[in-house]
Design brief:
Distance between the termini: 20 Å
GO molecular function, one term: aspartic-type endopeptidase activity
CATH topology: Cathepsin D, subunit A, domain 1
Number of helices: 9
Family: Belongs to the peptidase A1 family.
Bound molecules: 2-acetamido-2-deoxy-beta-D-glucopyranose
Protein name: Asp domain-containing protein
Structural class: alpha+beta
Keywords: Aspartyl protease, Disulfide bond, Hydrolase, Protease, Signal
CATH class: Mainly Beta
Radius of gyration: 22 Å
CATH architecture: Beta Barrel
Helix content: 10-25%
CATH superfamily: Acid Proteases
Shape: globular
Number of strands: 31
Strand content: 25-35%
Strand order of the largest sheet: 4-5-12-6-11-10
Pfam family, one: TAXi_C
Amino acid sequence: MALSFRFLFSSSLLLLSLLCASNKGGAHRYLKPKPNNVIDGRPNLNVYHKAKLCPPHDHPGTHKAYVPSHEEILRLDQDRVDSIHSKISNSNAIAKDSTTLPAKSGAILNSGNYFVTIGLGTPKKELSLIFDTGSFLAWTQCEPCSGSCYRQQEPIFDPSASTSYNNITCNSATCQSSSSATGTQPGCSDSTCTYATAYGDGSATAGFLGNDALTLTDTDIVSNFVFGCGENNTGLFHGTAGLLGLGRDPLSIVSQTAQEYNQVFSYCLPSTASLTGSLTFGSPLASQSFSYTPLSSNQQTTSFYGLDTKGITVNGTTVNIDPSVWSTAGTIIDSGTVITRLPPDAYSAMRDAFKQGMTQYPTAPPYGSFFDTCYDLSEYPNATLPVISLLFNGSVTVPVPVSGTLYQIQNNQSCLAFAPNGSPNDVAIYGNQQQLTIGVVYDVPGNQVGFANNVCQ
Ligand SMILES: *[C@@H]1O[C@H](CO)[C@@H](O)[C@H](O)[C@H]1NC(C)=O
Ligand SMILES: *[C@@H]1O[C@H](CO)[C@@H](O)[C@H](O)[C@H]1NC(C)=O
Ligand SMILES: *[C@@H]1O[C@H](CO)[C@@H](O)[C@H](O)[C@H]1NC(C)=O
Ligand SMILES: *[C@@H]1O[C@H](CO)[C@@H](O)[C@H](O)[C@H]1NC(C)=O
Ligand SMILES: *[C@@H]1O[C@H](CO)[C@@H](O)[C@H](O)[C@H]1NC(C)=O
Ligand SMILES: *[C@@H]1O[C@H](CO)[C@@H](O)[C@H](O)[C@H]1NC(C)=O
């Protein structure tokens, strides 16, 4: 088993020269996404990488899409991982000494990279929202932006222009239970429920809770969908209109559409920013063969999607890792974390096995303190990489695609795209680089997550 590196240069996250597609020739002021469609009765939303988002319509000057640097991507990724670790604390030693515990915020930093476009209100207005299995609330910026709004690609949603918008009242059960999704206790203003969510990087949204018609496709319209109507928003959302949380919380879209789609959804993340992936609600098509692993019964991970990792193979050989390494840490799968984080002992054993399969290629310097194993493959367009596979409970083997094996910093520096956690007690996170092109189905009532190879490009 070996992967050809030939495809890597075309499929890695080489965004630097990416022009916002629809601005070419200046014909359009912003990206017009392809319409979402219906496949065998299931709403199928197009998924784009954030780098595809064009500058906000009132953005002065540049015609280039906002393209974060590798340094920024990886720094925000570490901040996100830190916020997940502070929410899931496995260490009994620390838990006993509660004063040393970091503050547990309900909100996980949203460095999330992928967005979908939905319609909100009547008549419907299109909005591009980051989707994220580590987030719980759906929110969008709302007029009249009484605090402040950052610039976004589409016009800001105006609830007063929607005939189907309703405020959520303070005494409703929805309001009173909203803190698990927002991370803060709700407030009350003129009998309307207010919410506030602050993220680890200083980004924040606050406003009213409301409900309105959510249009996924022309025939899939969810009435009375509860979301945050943010009138005071700041942060690094880079032109998206807000967020769509897919986590395990009563307020997430997954729970709110339980009647329609039975808390089952799947996605496929595209290998480059110029390709389109998909986010589908409802059970997967019979024609797609998924291998299922049970959701973990580890209580710590229950607001996330927990998995039980059993091991790692490198080019078909099982890496020697004590099983207790996995059970001590636990594992979650997350669409918003970029780089997979492993327990320190699992990482070093896997890395050493990978290095043994790469001895014929010249090494490159490490990338800061983030990536310690890098290669200069600029002279080896056809290099073959050892295949890394993740093994999950239920004998499920998920091979990491070639696009997710190395992270290309520059032409002469491609780094093993995994990182160790700081502590053996920190939860392992199966991140989105290692999920590229793989179909991932989340089946809450079936208590399982499934994987299928090569579902998208
Ligand atoms: C908006 O939020 C910021 C903090 O994010 C706060 O300082 C400011 O007072 C808020 N403004 C209003 C009008 O609520
Ligand atoms: C929702 O509540 C806010 C604050 O009380 C108010 O300004 C707005 O007019 C209300 N909207 C509707 C449709 O009731
Ligand atoms: C991986 O295994 C295949 C055979 O399954 C072998 O041909 C290839 O050389 C191995 N690659 C490395 C890098 O060890
Ligand atoms: C890489 O493989 C392609 C297709 O097999 C071939 O055309 C090309 O010459 C190879 N390049 C090198 C440097 O070996
Ligand atoms: C693995 O899955 C089985 C159910 O299929 C479950 O009973 C067991 O607890 C799971 N856990 C671990 C750690 O493998
Ligand atoms: C790698 O490429 C960069 C930019 O092209 C260059 O500045 C650097 O010197 C190269 N490093 C090595 C080790 O060749």
